[in-house]
Design a protein that fits this description.
With about 800 residues, this protein is an alpha/beta fold. The chain is built from 28 helices and 24 strands. Helices cover about 45% and strands about 15% of the residues.
């Protein structure tokens, strides 16, 4: 085949994103052949000519696209698969092959348009994209998580009935099984689950049936060139639960005399694209002979392992010999080096790199660097390989490496190193060593610095959650030393049996955010003044209760904002990047909500208000969002200028408080309110960075009486307190103290944690929601105050949540309605 005969392809940048999916489906519809690429600088396999390069966005979230699979033999996609030699193979997949898989899969799972799936594997993988195609063929929806598979996120979406389907590889499901308590009351909500890419044990299958009793659980077996060859219905199979199932549709399987599995069917790749043309992957009778071993009983295929030395690291296929050659190419001749598979409880297998003894420390470091670089080249994180030293590499009589013997030979050295590395180290350091090996000796590095992948992210986060008093958002960017400082006081546990420090501290943040949200909705339902809300007399006990909570309502919300900033500080991306994200989150809904509320008041009440001033001065309750934006901007600048050491941030907070006491009331961006709330934000940052503020043994006894200072003074002085210097001092004191008390004593409440998920949307739209319901009830003659309050409170929370969930299905409206 000459150059002008090459297959024309569109190179599409691979991202686990909505943009990637749309780009691929658009190519399918246009009749173009897709070549997914990690980077447009990557070399193009021989036999292919790139006619267009398509960049894709990285947006994630809900995805729906109805697709009627094409049935023709025309080329649809190139899938690059690395064989046992390590040379990339450009597998050509036809539309017919893709359609056959989608049809058989949706039929076997009995998928329908009600499916809303949490896709726990990257959609750039054959498994993940197969899920998308099947869902698209029946009109279902897919949720693409922004940070990969996260057990807490899945549980939350399942609890709130936002998902009813799941796809995940066994490595992730093993983590889920270990955390099965989180699904005890919600597992029955799952209707579909597909398991694939790696083998899964019989006990694990039985555990999945128990956790998800109402789900149709399907396991598949296949290869890139023969996707989803067999299906096993784990949810109903009894006699052959240990198998990988049976072929469906027109797919056939058989075993060769040497035990290798052969496959035939319309789902097979058309061939391998080479410089000399399309190379067939089947024999003359259409059979694809694999390197997998198996046996068949009653039509069910049992997978018995691989006939070659391909290492399956959490679903990433690593050819041992190719990995070995790449390491050798990066090192000087220290001695013998060999690579072999090593069993791992989480990943299934690791790449074991064995070397004969090296005396020089610098040479050992150079070898580890070479292995790390090679692992990254093969898309394997540091958690996916082990480096060990032996006296000699075992070989056969023909001088071939006895790879199966390497793991047993190196195991004592690995265990000894793990035991010694944990001695005298913190639990956090032990966790990182368990994940990244000896490289974690550099405690100045973070998870991101180590190049951790989504699988090691889940494992590391779960183990850190059992150690740290709270799992800080953005922990992956924090150094080992920073995380170790969060462990608190007390004895250090081991990585396998970690000891939790300060149990409960900061674990109730979502509960507190939900509580603050409820208090804000409540005050607007009652009305800040007698002419607002339920229009109650100024001296009513309803107003008295709301006024007594004045010192904790917005101060708590602002402290929490500071805590979350502490977890994701501006130092991660710089001031421009940080503020760009904040503006993107706040400004569109702020503008839209201002227009909506301004228009409603003009239409319903005939209000004659200047629209420009509404934007400049902060309109109605939306002033708080203006204030937060200013606080974020100033705090980030001060934090960065102070090198994130907090001293300049504290000085800015003190200056803000002093200015508040002398600056007259200004409408512009509610500047005085900004000055008043800024110290609370900084206090939240300090709580995150220095948790001893809340955990010290004197903190709670001191905070309890200080919390009561404001309500006591208010009830003594009454109307004489608001607006005075004493009012400000007492609010700062009691508000900060109340935050400490709530952090220490408030239990986690599931309902409030759910509310917290939607807090931003609730804040935006709760006045309109509660007012609408109140108007309807007034029209009906309902006048019972407690009933009006209860209904208004429920409406102020529930209707914005409904808006949030509906808006999430339309990205444009989502940005306007919920940020």
């Amino acid at each position: 085949m000459r150059l002008h005969d090459n297959l024309a392809v569109v190179a599409v940048t691979k991202h686990n994103s909505i943009g990637y999916l749309d780009a691929v489906f658009d190519c399918y519809e246009a009749g173009s052949t897709v070549l997914p690429v990690a980077d447009h600088a990557d070399p193009v396999p021989a036999g292919l000519s790139v006619v267009h390069r398509q960049e894709t966005s990285t947006d994630t979230g809900w995805y729906r696209r109805a697709v009627n699979p094409r049935q023709g033999a025309e080329p649809a996609q190139i899938s690059l698969s690395s064989g046992t030699t390590g040379a990339p193979k450009a597998l050509l997949l036809s539309h017919r092959a893709l359609a056959d898989v989608a049809t058989r899969l949706s039929t076997a799972m009995q998928l329908d348009a009600s499916a809303r799936e949490y896709v726990g594997v990257p959609v750039t993988f054959s498994f993940g994209f197969g899920r998308i195609r099947a869902l698209a063929s029946v009109g279902g929806e897919a949720f693409i998580p922004a940070r990969g598979f996260r057990i807490d996120e899945l549980a939350g979406l399942l609890r709130s009935d936002e998902v009813n389907s799941l796809s995940a590889v066994p490595t992730l499901l093993r983590l889920l099984i270990a955390e099965r308590e989180k699904f005890r009351d919600i597992g029955a909500k799952l209707r579909w689950l597909e398991v694939g890419s790696q083998s899964i044990s019989l006990p694990e299958k039985q555990a999945l049936r128990q956790i998800f009793p109402n789900a149709r659980i399907l396991q598949h077996y296949g290869l890139t060139e023969a996707s989803r060859t067999t299906f096993l219905d784990i949810s109903s199979e009894e006699d052959h639960l240990g198998s990988v199932g049976r072929p469906t549709g027109s797919v056939e399987i058989k075993l060769l005399d040497d035990g290798r599995i052969a496959i035939r069917g319309p789902h097979l790749a058309s061939g391998i694209v080479t410089a000399d043309g399309l190379q067939s992957i089947t024999d003359t009778e259409g059979w694809l002979v694999t390197s997998d071993l198996g046996h068949i009983a009653d039509g069910y295929l049992y997978f018995d392992g691989r006939a070659d030395d391909l290492i399956n690291v959490g679903g990433v296929k690593v050819p041992a010999e190719a990995f070995e050659r790449a390491v050798l190419a990066r090192t000087k001749p220290y001695g013998e080096i060999a690579v072999a598979p090593m069993d791992d409880a989480l990943l299934g297998q690791k790449a074991l790199v064995v070397s004969t003894a090296i005396a020089d420390v610098a040479d050992k470091s150079a070898l580890r660097d070479a292995v790390r670089t090679t692992a990254a080249e093969f898309k394997v994180a540091e958690s996916g390989f082990e480096l060990a030293y032996v006296e000699a590499v075992p070989r056969t009589e023909t001088n071939k490496v006895q790879r199966r013997a390497l793991a047993a030979l190196a195991e004592p050295a690995i265990r000894s190193r793990a035991a010694s590395s944990n001695e005298g180290s913190s639990s956090v350091e032990a966790v990182f060593r368990k994940t990244f090996g000896a490289a974690a000796d550099d405690t100045g590095r973070s998870f991101i610095d180590f190049g951790g992948d989504s699988l090691s992210y889940v494992r590391t986060s779960l183990e850190l959650e059992a150690i740290l008093p709270t799992m800080p958002e953005g922990w992956e960017a924090m150094s080992i030393a920073e995380l170790a400082r969060l462990e608190g006081d007390g004895e250090t546990g081991s990585a396998s049996t970690p000891t939790r420090r300060n149990p409960g501290l900061l674990l109730n943040l979502d509960t507190l955010r939900g509580l603050a949200c409820l208090m804000i909705v409540a005050v607007h339902v009652i009305g800040a003044d007698p002419v607002d809300g339920l229009q109650l007399p100024a001296g009513s006990w309803w107003h008295q209760v709301m006024n007594n909570l004045e010192f904790v309502r917005l101060p708590l919300f602002t402290c929490l904002a500071g805590i979350f900033y502490g977890a994701l500080p501006a130092s991660r991306s710089g001031w421009p990047g940080f503020m760009s994200r904040k503006l993107h989150q706040f400004v569109p809904p702020l503008i839209f909500a201002t227009l909506v509320f301004w228009g409603l008041r003009r239409w319903i009440y005939g209000a004659d208000e200047d629209l420009l001033l509404a934007f400049v001065n902060g309109y109605l309750h939306l002033w708080y969002l203006d204030t937060l934006l200013v606080i974020f901007a100033v705090a980030a600048a001060a934090d960065l200028a102070g090198g994130s050491r907090s001293h300049l941030l504290v000085m800015t907070a003190i200056a803000s408080g002093l200015l508040y006491l002398v600056v007259p009331e200004l409408d512009l961006l509610h500047l005085r309110n900004t000055l008043f709330l800024f110290p609370f934000f900084v206090f939240g940052v300090l709580l995150y960075r220095f948790p001893v503020i809340a955990t010290d043994r004197v903190s709670l006894p001191l905070a309890l009486p200080l919390t009561l200072a404001y309500p006591i003074a208010y009830n003594i002085l009454g109307a004489g307190l608001p607006g005075t210097t004493l009012d400000a001092l007492l609010t700062w004191t009691s508000g900060a103290a109340a935050t400490v008390v709530l952090l220490r004593l408030m239990p986690r409440i599931g309902l409030l944690e759910i509310i917290s998920i939607y807090s931003f949307t609730i804040y935006l739209w709760h006045p309109a929601a509660s007012a609408m319901v109140r108007t309807l009830l007034d029209t009906s003659g309902v006048g019972v105050i407690w009933f009006l309050f209860a209904i208004g409170l429920v409406a102020g929370v529930a209707l914005p949540i409904a808006i949030h969930r509906l808006a999430g299905r339309v990205p444009v409206f989502g940005a306007l309605l919920k940020g």
